[in-house]
C-alpha cells in the first residue's frame, strides 16, 4: 500500500528534525574546543585551518558538482558571497575571538537568540510568518536555555553587562541568522555539497589576509597533540558534517524551525562538560534541558494537532 501524501510529508519532517539534531552537538563541541584552546590556537588560525581540513574532506565528493553548478553560481554570486562571509568566515572568527574573553556557556547562551533573530529578521525583511506553535516553542525552549545559563536563577542575568567577548558572539549570531535565511533562498536544484565547497573556497580567500595579519602580529599555533586533535575535530565535525546536515534540514523544515534547534547547544554543552570535564550535573540543568526539548517538540508538531 502506498503512503499518503500527509504521511510522506510527516516522514520528511522527521528526517529534517533528525538532520538538525546533530549539528548542535558538533557545534557545542566547537565552543568547548574554542574556549579550551584559546591560548594554544589563535582565533584566525583555528578558523582558517578548520576550513582547509573541511575543503580536503569535501573536495573528493563535491568538486565535480561545484564545477557543474559554476554557471548557476554566477546568477546569485552576491548571495553566495554573503553565505560564505557570514556563515563560514565571520561567524566562526567572531565566536573564536569572543571565546578569548567570555565563557563557552555565555557563548552558547547568546546563540540561543538565533531562533528569535531568524524569526525577527525573516518577518522584518522577508515577510515570513510564524505559527502559534512555533512562537510557543521559542518561548518554552528559550526559558530552558535561561535556566541553564543562569544556574537556575534568571534574575542574575539582569545584572550582567555585555562584555567585549559577549558582544562579538552576539554579532556572530546575527551573521548566522542571515546565513540561515539566505541559504533557504538558494535554488533547491543546486547541489548542496558543491555549494558548501564553493562557500569554503570563498571563505578561505577572505580569511587568508586576516590570517597573515594575525601571524605578523606574533600570534602562532603552539603545535602539539592537543592542538592537532582540536583542529582536526573542528575541521570535520562542526565544519563538514554539521553544515551539510544543517543545510539539508533547512531545506526540509524551513529557516525558522531549523533555527529553533540552536537551543540544543547548551543542552549538549552541559552533557559534554559533565562527561568530559567531570563537572557536576544540577537539577536546574536537567529541568532546563527538559524545557528545551519540550519547546523543540512543541514547535515541530504536525499542523492541526
From TrEMBL:
Cellular component, GO, one term: plasma membrane
Transmembrane stretches, start-end: 12-32, 76-99, 105-126, 133-152, 164-183, 195-216, 228-248, 260-277, 283-300
Protein name per UniProt: EamA family transporter
Membrane topology: Multi-pass membrane protein
Organism lineage string: Bacteria, Pseudomonadati, Pseudomonadota, Betaproteobacteria, Rhodocyclales
Record flagged with keyword Cell membrane: yes
Top-rank taxon: Bacteria
Location of this chain's protein in the cell: Cell membrane
Ranges in a coiled coil: none
Domain EamA span(s) in chain numbering: 15-149, 165-299
Pfam families hit by this protein: EamA
Location (main, coarse): membrane
Leader sequence segment: none
Entry keyword set: Cell membrane, Membrane, Transmembrane, Transmembrane helix
Amino acid at each position: 500500500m502506498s503512503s499518503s501524501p500527509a504521511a510522506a510529508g510527516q516522514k520528511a519532517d522527521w528526517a529534517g528534525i533528525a538532520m538538525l539534531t546533530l549539528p548542535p552537538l558538533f557545534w557545542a563541541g566547537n565552543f568547548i574546543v574554542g574556549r579550551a584552546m584559546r591560548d594554544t590556537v589563535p582565533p584566525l588560525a583555528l578558523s582558517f585551518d578548520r576550513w582547509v581540513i573541511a575543503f580536503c574532506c569535501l573536495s573528493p565528493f563535491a568538486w565535480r558538482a561545484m564545477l557543474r553548478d559554476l554557471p548557476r553560481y554566477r546568477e546569485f554570486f552576491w548571495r553566495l558571497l554573503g553565505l560564505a562571509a557570514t556563515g563560514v568566515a565571520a561567524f566562526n572568527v567572531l565566536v573564536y575571538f569572543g571565546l578569548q574573553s567570555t565563557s563557552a556557556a555565555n557563548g552558547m547562551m547568546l546563540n540561543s537568540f538565533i531562533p528569535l533573530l531568524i524569526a525577527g529578521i525573516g518577518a522584518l525583511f522577508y515577510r515570513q510568518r510564524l505559527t502559534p506553535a512555533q512562537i510557543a516553542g521559542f518561548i518554552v525552549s528559550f526559558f530552558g536555555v535561561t535556566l541553564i545559563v543562569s544556574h537556575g536563577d534568571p534574575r542574575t542575568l539582569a545584572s550582567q553587562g555585555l562584555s567585549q567577548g559577549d558582544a562579538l558572539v552576539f554579532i556572530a549570531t546575527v551573521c548566522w541568522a542571515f546565513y540561515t535565511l539566505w541559504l533557504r533562498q538558494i535554488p533547491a536544484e543546486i547541489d548542496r555539497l558543491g555549494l558548501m565547497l564553493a562557500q569554503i573556497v570563498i571563505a578561505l580567500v577572505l580569511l587568508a589576509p586576516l590570517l597573515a595579519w594575525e601571524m605578523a602580529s606574533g600570534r602562532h599555533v603552539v603545535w602539539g597533540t592537543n592542538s592537532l586533535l582540536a583542529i582536526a575535530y573542528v575541521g570535520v565535525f562542526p565544519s563538514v558534517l554539521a553544515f551539510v546536515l544543517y543545510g539539508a534540514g533547512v531545506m526540509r523544515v524551513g529557516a525558522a524551525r531549523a533555527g529553533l534547534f540552536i537551543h540544543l547547544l547548551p543542552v549538549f554543552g552541559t552533557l559534554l562538560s559533565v562527561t568530559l570535564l567531570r563537572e557536576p550535573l544540577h537539577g536546574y540543568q536537567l529541568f532546563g534541558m527538559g524545557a528545551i526539548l519540550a519547546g523543540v517538540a512543541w514547535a515541530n508538531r504536525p499542523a492541526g494537532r
